[in-house]
Amino acid sequence: MEYRTLGASGLKVPVLSFGAGTFGGKGPLFSAWGDSGVDEARRLIAVCLEAGVNLFDTADVYSDGASEEILGEALQGRRDEALISTKIGLPTGEGPNDAGASRLRLVRGVEAALRRLRTDRIDLLQLHAFDAATPVEETLAALDVLVRDGKVRYVGASNFSGWQLMKSLAAADRYGFPRYVAHQAYYSLIGRDYEWELMPLGQDQKVGGLIWSPLGWGRLTGKIRRGQPAPKVSRLHDTADMGPPVDDERLFAVVEVLDALAAETGRAVPQIAINWLLGRPTVASVILGARDEAQLRQNLDAAGWSLTADQVARLDAASAVTPAYPYFPYWREGGFQRVNPPPV
Q1: Catalytic residue numbers, as ranges
Q2: Is 294 a domain residue?
Q3: What is the pLDDT of residues 27-39, one digit of tens each?
Q4: Residue 272 included in any domain
Q5: How many helices (H) and strands (E) does the chain have?
Q6: pTM
């Protein structure tokens, strides 16, 4: 397994990590992802650790905390072999302080997460969303205390816009608070908006990308093709409307290239889609989800090899979309490109 340095930190993370959103299966959204209990979770974790995948990502809102509870129990006896990443900030109740990134919410939320995870520290704590109602200085000061107390090792963000992330980084620099070393964001062959602003920001500020939904909400599994109905068992039936919209023609164009490359390489379609991401700038780790061991083992084989330059170019061309202003390519032609080059 290849390991990469996470942003401007000394932490090494595997290029593939495991998303524990499939643990628990409570509620309509998370039951569509998966419903692994402790025994199944323990088996999946063993497969990951054997392959060198030691980063496990969860959140307090996943299955109302059940994901953290199952992950924590399944890691008993192997905690020191693993890195635990969890997220906080989305609503966990109806109370006025049950959401956001205030000092109260963060301290209380971390203590609750530690109990559910059955551990004394969180290796990477990420804010699940930007809290526009709380001053960034308050949020960062609370994270600073949690780091100093040893309850949190590193901090990051998730689902921030470019200005929200940059504002937080600037405040951290100004006051000497811990900087976000990771940004957990959506990125896939059919969701390339990450490249417009978050990628160049991550490259400039040394923020590592932790990529969620690398298969585009289940659209790049190889089960969806032009002229064929969606499979009867698919998370798309329950969750597609929650993700960014995808034009059907663009989706089918990408899938057709994936099919062609699968035939050329002998690899599965999901492996090719994930491998393409591993070659993109700022990507530190791609988070895999798996309902069972067979699916996990297939996805783990997405690492350890590389697409050719020609194969990457074909995927780039099929998945390309014209960015909105001010990211429109015209502004990167001629003199504009000389002063504002794209990430490489």
Answers
A1: 62
A2: yes
A3: 656 656 667 899 9
A4: yes
A5: 13, 10
A6: 0.92
